[in-house]
Amino acid sequence: MSDARQVAIHQPAYLPWLGYFDRIARVDRFVFLDTVQFEKNSFINRNRIKTPQGAQWLTVPVLGRGHLASTLRETRIDESRDWRRDHLKAVAMNYRRAPRFAERYAQLEQLYAERQDNLAELCWRQLGFWLDELGIETPLVRASELDVDSRKSQLVLDICLALGADSYLSGALGRDYLDEAAFAARGIEVRYQAFTPPTYPQLWGAFVPGLGVLDWWMNSGDSRSEFRELT
C-alpha cells in the first residue's frame, strides 16, 4: 500500500457528523482506526437526532465493563435489548415529515436488518452505506490490517508511513497531541481540517447544530449533489 498521498485516520463512529465525511472526501485513503480502546460516552457508539423536544441520543449498547475487550474490533454489542427497533422507531417518529421519508426509511430498515454483534463491524458496514449515499469513493483501510502497534502521535505517523503518505489531514484536536516535528522529519506534512458545519433545513423549529449525518440526510434532497456543495 504505497499509493496514498494524503491520508486521514479516525476511530469508528456511529452516525458520524458531516465533518467526519468531509475529511474522508478530501483524502486519498481513509484509515478506520479499529485498534484503539472503546471510550465510554464518546461518539463511537452514539450520536444525536432531532426531535420536537430538541436533540436526542441514539446509543448502541455495548456489553458491560467486565466484558469489554481492549480494542474496538473486540467490543461486543449488547443484544439483550432490541436497540435496532428502538432506533428505527425514533427515526420514524421524528422524521415522518421529512421530504423523502418513505424512501429513506426503507433504506434504513434494510440496513438495520443486517446483524453485526461487533461494534467496529457495525460502524464499518454503516460507514460504507453513508459513503455511498454521499457519493464518496475514497478507499478505506482498517488499521487492524496494518502492521502497526504504537500509540497516539506515533501511531498516526506509523500508519502514514505504512501507506506511503506524504500528507496527513488531521481533525482540529490533533493540534493537542501530534508531534509535527516527527512527521516533518519523515517527510510528511500535517494539515488540519477546516470544516464549517452547514446550516440546513430541519424539522421541528430552530436549527440544532452538530447532529449526526442521519439528520442532514433525512432533510436533504439529492444527498450526493448536496454533499458535493458542502465540500
TrEMBL record:
Domain of life: Bacteria
Pfam families per the UniProt record, alphabetical: WbqC
Protein name (record): WbqC family protein
Species whose genome carries this gene: Pseudomonas tohonis
Species lineage: Bacteria, Pseudomonadati, Pseudomonadota, Gammaproteobacteria, Pseudomonadales
